[in-house]
Write a structure and sequence with these properties.
alpha/beta; three-stranded parallel β-sheet; 385 residues; four-stranded mixed β-sheet; TIM Barrel
């Protein structure tokens, strides 16, 4: 691998970056920019795959999960969002009752799911104490399930409305059974871009403070980056730099999830989506830049299963989970996955088709089942979760 780069015709500055990667040294902001501006797909893939295989061998992690989206009614007005309905057009939105949410959970009785991911629009009537009580009830029904819930955007609003600090709010949720935070709401931190795409929701500093506070309370989290719209490469590197700095401080992030902007039915529909090549370059640079993040995830309901397979050669080691058609965020934004659901067997086959080694994990990446030489029973073949 190293000699392949040495012999190749890449520029001396890119070779210097390759050397750093092979010596496990961190690359700088300027070097991140250089990768975006000059790094060709093959070069980036070689480096990212080197890091990925050094960390995880040929493992590809997935979990058995489903989402709950309590509502798509939202007080905010993010320009890229195809999913939310403003309060004023409420008749087009949905609001699940507590009973409906708990019934959905109960429909998984006896099925081996390990995680519920709860995230939705920011509804003024669904506040901190409502959600704390909901989580408590979820845990009473299914004590073993990991509750990954609420983006920092939802949390900032909930805490503000309940007049509690971020620490107090997170502590309450933790005491009621919330285990971790998903990575949404980060978008692009840089104020020049944030102001144009989501000016009314939590700021970058608030997002980072909420995750820092969660980590200090022993609640791990993920981080996302919404790329491929009006941002420039410098904004992507700035975004990753801020996350890398926080991770140096807390070590509380598990996974970095680049999210490709999808342009159907939103206020940014006039912006063309970036190419698959750019998606793969972006995964690879994320793997190279985010040297203190254990995992890089390709979220298949958003990127589609074909690109998710390709990404496994470009730094990605995680493809999220079975989902069971329980999220609408991406189908409404135009993803090729209109009813995102894969059985465990389908996920395993997806990974094996590209000669990788599928392993089921829990939310914290403890290995549950190794599927390398696994034979599915007749009953297992039909289980969606
Ligand atoms: O913050 C909304 C994104 C995010 C669009 O932590 C869009 O494991 C693309 O964060 N095009 C929410 N993206 C989802 C999220 C997530 C998903 C899966 C796993 C995890 C995890 C987190 O969805 C939002 C926003 O960045 N989003 N609209 C769109 N048109
Ligand atoms: Fe609301 Fe989230 Fe959509 Fe923004 S991305 S409008 S906060 S649901």
């Amino acid at each position: 691998m190293k000699s392949f780069i040495e012999k190749s015709s890449v520029s001396p500055e890119l070779k210097k970056i390759a050397e750093k990667v092979f010596n496990s040294e961190r690359i700088s902001f300027d070097e991140g920019m250089l990768l975006y501006e000059k790094g060709e797909l093959g070069f980036l893939g070689t480096l990212a795959n080197y890091i990925r295989e050094k960390r995880h061998g040929d493992y590809v992690y997935f979990n058995r999960n489903f989402h709950v989206e309590p509502t798509n009614i939202c007080v905010f007005d993010c320009k890229f969002c195809s999913y939310s309905r403003l309060l004023k057009s409420k008749e087009e939105g949905w609001e699940l009752s507590e009973e409906q949410i708990l019934d959905k959970l109960k429909s998984y009785d006896g099925k081996p799911i390990t995680e519920v991911h709860i995230v939705g629009g920011v509804h003024p009537k669904m506040g901190l104490h409502y959600f704390a009580s909901l989580i408590k009830k979820i845990k009473e029904i299914r004590p073993d399930i990991h509750v990954k819930a609420f983006t920092a955007v939802e949390l900032e609003y909930m805490c503000r409305k309940a007049k509690v600090s971020f620490r107090e709010g997170l502590q309450i949720l933790k005491e009621h059974g919330q285990n971790s935070l998903p990575g949404g709401g980060a978008e692009i931190f840089h104020p020049e871009i944030r102001k144009q795409i989501c000016e009314d929701k939590c700021t970058a500093d608030e997002w980072l403070e909420i995750h820092e506070t969660a980590h200090s309370l022993g609640m791990p989290s993920n981080a996302t980056m919404l790329y491929g719209h009006i941002e420039k490469f410098e904004h992507r590197v700035d975004h990753m730099e801020r996350l890398r700095n926080l991770q140096d401080k807390t070590n509380g992030f598990n996974t970095f999830i680049p999210l490709k902007f999808r342009n159907k039915d939103n206020q940014m529909s006039h912006i063309a989506e970036v190419s698959t090549i750019e998606d793969l370059r972006n995964y690879a640079i994320s793997r190279i830049y985010m040297d203190n993040f254990p995992h890089i995830k390709a979220y298949w309901p958003m990127i589609g299963r074909n690109t998710a397979q390709l990404s496994l050669q470009f730094g990605v080691d995680d493809i999220d989970g079975t989902i069971d058609d329980s999220t609408k965020i991406y189908s409404m934004a135009g993803s090729e996955e209109q009813t995102p659901a894969l059985t465990t067997q389908q996920l395993v086959e997806l990974v094996k088709q590209v000669n990788r080694h599928p392993v089921e994990r829990d939310t914290l990446y403890n290995i549950i089942t190794d599927y390398k030489n696994y034979n599915f029973s007749k009953e297992e073949k039909t289980v969606t979760a």
